[in-house]
Amino acid sequence: MSIWICKNNNTVNVKKEVEDLLSSVGKIEYKDIIYVYSDDYSHGGLRLKYKYIVGLNLKLKREEELNNEVDLPYTILYNTRSSKNLIKLDEKAIKFIIDETNIHETPPVEIISEDNGKSDTNFEYKNILLKGVPGTGKSHLIDKTLINKELKLSTNDENVLRINVHSASSNADLMQGIGINTTTSHDIEYKEKQGLILDHIYEAILHPKQAFVLVLEEIQENSLNELIGDLIYLIEPSKRTNIAKYVLEGKDLKDVKEEYKDIKTLDNLITKIVSTPFTKSGGEAEFAHFVEIPSLVSTDIKKRKMIFPDNLYVFCTSNFREDKKVIEDNLLRRFDTIEIYPNYNDDIYEEPKVAKFLSSLNSKILSKMKDDEVHPDRFVIGHAIWRKVKDKKTFYKALLKVVVEFKDVKELEYDDYLKEILSKITDYPFGITKDEIKKESYKDLIEYLQNKSYDFLPENSTVETEETDANTEEEKSITTPENIDETNSNT
């Protein structure tokens, strides 16, 4: 099996790509994407194996491996002049090129970029946690107020990373993990991989005059300490690194690029930043705060330094949960925590009477729960499902969601809680009365609301419980003296 290299991820055009590469037209340059194929014809011809991005350093270091120290394009042409169609290298040669040149599987450093004027980094609140019951508009507030209005970014901007946290989320996925590859010789190779959050941090470091946002939705589902590890220490505003101020302030970008011209990797850039003292407003010299990240694969004792850029905002949402804290104690002081409650403003509802009903419903919930719960506000109902309610059918559907939440999520007894709460409400809209809603069990109320909400259900459909079926079968199987006498007489 041989290895082939070209600049096109389309095997149909490989011949044309190689012809260009043999001429000056196809000269490989910094940031070009290189595709590496194997000619394993048992799999249908050329097969893509690797994808690389060419780095800044295009020079080889070991003359004895190849003819002489030359640029990468000509290195690839080494001992391939006889090939008219493809550029061919043996596995040893391709491994040498990948190892000895600065070709990266992630983009190399493009030293500190100019401000593109598309965002604002002057917003003072770096870490915000919005918490409350579901449906109170926490994500909407982040998008419309914090991201769009304050930071002047669109929610689908590449500077915004949104992650929905769940119980299976891990530090390996979000920060740093171990990837497994199979080499061309079919050996297993372990290598470190960067997670989504770590990639986003790097982008913010390289663009210090642009605002970057990390949105973590529903952080109550996991531990933020475990997800981002040692960076917990650095997200505190006083521990962040203001790269725009201490690297760029008072300097032309041209001068900065000259100062950092020898920096070829992001690790080197961060090392230079943390080792260069800056002067505070009082004249005192300080160094940037950093943490050290150990290598997960290499045995090298040298650790990577990591900083947290001042232009990266962390916005989190959290729903209330009874089985754990919303946020760990050591994080609470690092976040501006804002509780979001249901909105009863008529302007956001299609029918103002619905706002009045929801206000009355939540008032009755708080009144009922205050004697049993330390924090009764955890049981109120958010406004999101009620905003589009416009008639009886949509009202029944919204109320059904509330009933199911009390039954299956909050697991509250019907007679002790929901039945009493609904019976005390007098502000039902659309001509609905409390007597209509008054039912004797969760089953009866859910069945009634389902039939009113969904036309495809048969009217008065009843689904017997397993317990009822079991009891019925048990009654049939019991043999009593009366049954025996009756059976004998019939015989």
* Number of structurally distinct domains: 3
Low-confidence segments:
21-26, 40-44, 54-90, 100-108, 463-470, 478-482
Q: Per DSSP, what share of the residues sits in E-state strands of 2 or more residues?
A: 15-25%
Question: What structural class do the secondary elements suggest?
Answer: alpha/beta
Question: Can you give the helix content as a percent range?
Answer: 25-40%
Shape: elongated
Number of helices: 18
What would your notes on this structure say?
The strands form five sheets. The chain has a five-stranded antiparallel β-sheet. A five-stranded parallel β-sheet has the order 7-10-15-6-16, with helices on both faces. A two-stranded antiparallel sheet has the order 8-9. Helix 12 (352-369) packs across helix 14 (414-423). It has helices at residues 14-22, 72-76, 91-100, 138-150, 171-174, 196-206, 224-228, 243-248, 253-259, 266-275, 329-332, 352-369, 392-409, 414-423, 434-437, 442-453, 466-477, 481-490; strands at 3-6, 33-38, 47-54, 88-89, 103-104, 127-132, 160-164, 176-182, 188-194, 212-217, 278-279, 285-286, 291-293, 304-306, 312-319, 336-339. A hairpin with a 5-residue loop joins strand 11 and strand 12 (285-286). The longest helix has 18 residues, at 352-369. With 491 residues, it is an alpha/beta fold. The chain has 18 helices and 16 strands. 34% of the residues lie in helices and 15% in strands. It folds into three domains: 3-104, no CATH class; 127-315, no CATH class; 346-466, no CATH class.
